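User: Can you predict the 3D structure for this chain?
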Amino acid sequence: MMMSRFIALAFVLVIPAAAVAQSTDATYCAALGDKYQRYVGQNDAKRRAQNPDATINTAIAQCSSGQAASAIPVLEKALRNAKVDLPPRT
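Assistant: Here is the predicted structure, written as structure tokens:
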């Protein structure tokens, strides 16, 4: 009996923490995408119009479709390569 209560308590504590982490990742991912579009996309609009970067476009789309974990590293790398500071991760 004690073990089943412990497992139930663990689920009660872990599930909300996971949801908060996903929400935080989604917010950070959106901030990365916004910053990329604002600072890199505008400065490089002519080149991107001729040769759009599918990797970045896919990563930005992933941010809004719940796949932030795979999009974040791509966007962070793109911003670092463009010498743009990353937004704060809260």
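Residues 63 and 88 are 16 Å apart (CA to CA). The chain has one domain: 23-90.
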